[in-house]
Amino acid sequence: ETQFMRYGDELWVNGTDITAGEAVNIYWDFVQAAYLLNTTTAKNDGTYGCYITIPTAYNGSHYIWAKDLASGLSMRSAGSINVWAKVSIDPDAGLSGDPVIVSGYGFNANEMYNVSVYGGGLVSHEKLWGTDDDETDDDGSFTFEFDIPNWIDNPYDVNATDETGTTAEDGLTIGPAVTLDVDIGPSGTVVKVEGRGFNASMTMYPEDNFTIWSGGVGYDVDTRDGDDVTTSGSGTFTAYLIIPSAPAGDYVFNITDSEKTAKSDFEI
């Protein structure tokens, strides 16, 4: 059975016929040290199981190998893993002129590619960079940097396409942006938040303009000293926020001056 995965995805790998109680190495495509993904130990009945993370790999079919370190025998997975293309944007929000890095994975190896930004509710808002001198590497990966265009504040899409037509995209928001000094921690963590691109001289109130959300449920966020936060004349601010009591999981910080809003991920 073929599995369809992307770079960074987790996959549970299991099998049988390993020497009881002995180590088993899991490899990607080749039984060589450079392709080792994980090591686990077989149970008394010779079965094993462990998670692997999909590595950088070109678009198409790949295989998992298991090597019994006691017997020296290696076995290939019956089904293949078909790697699909993926792009990630860093940062995924910012102001016109800010630099953005596009990282591509799972494209075809050693092919030229194009990067385009479009959307924002306007078909005319499209910019295409032809990268005739740049190619994906042997694993179908690339990095590409550009400055955010001088467009209106809105969500946009960043698309990458290689010569064969393999394509993937991710979102980019032009507008207010916030940076967190930490993006994971328990309830009670103090997070330094720096914001840009908001309205000038606006007051933001604890437990009103600062919230975190998960699954449609919101939690109010207070400042460390309980005071309001006022943006500068250029629309910037620095605030120290306390992560509220909430269940463990993935959240989205929602920070607004009541007119402009920025978001950022946080894990409790």
Task: Write up this protein.
- The chain has strands at residues 3-5, 10-15, 23-28, 36-41, 48-53, 60-62, 64-68, 74-76, 81-83, 86-90, 93-94, 99-105, 112-119, 122-135, 142-147, 154-162, 167-174, 177-180, 190-196, 203-204, 210-214, 217-220, 222-223, 229-230, 237-242, 250-256, 261-267.
- By secondary structure, it is mainly β.
- The strands form eight sheets. The protein has a five-stranded mixed β-sheet with strand order 11-17-16-13-14, with no helix packed on it. The chain has a four-stranded antiparallel β-sheet with strand order 4-3-7-8, with no helix packed on it. The protein has a four-stranded antiparallel β-sheet with strand order 18-19-25-23, with no helix packed on it.
- A hairpin with a 4-residue loop joins strand 26 and strand 27 (261-267).
- It is flat.
- It starts with a strand and ends with a strand.
Topology, number of strands: 27
Q: Termini separation (Å)?
A: 36 Å
Largest sheet: 5 strands, mixed
- Encode the helix/strand succession as letters: EEEEEEEEEEEEEEEEEEEEEEEEEEE
Second rung of CATH, namely the architecture of the largest domain = Sandwich
Q: What fraction, in percent, of the residue positions are helical?
A: under 10%
User: Beta-sheet strand percentage?
Assistant: over 45%
What overall form do the CA principal axes indicate?
Answer: flat
Strand order of the largest sheet: 11-17-16-13-14
What is the average of the pLDDT values?
93
Helix/strand/pairing category: mainly beta
| Domain module count | 3
Parts with pLDDT < 50 across at least 5 consecutive residues: none
CATH class identity of the largest domain: Mainly Beta
- In the CATH hierarchy, what is the superfamily of the largest domain? Neocarzinostatin-like
What is the fold-level CATH name, i.e. the topology of the largest domain? Immunoglobulin-like
Q: What Rg do the Cα atoms give?
A: 23 Å
Total helical elements: 0
Protein name: IPT/TIG domain-containing protein
Organism: marine sediment metagenome
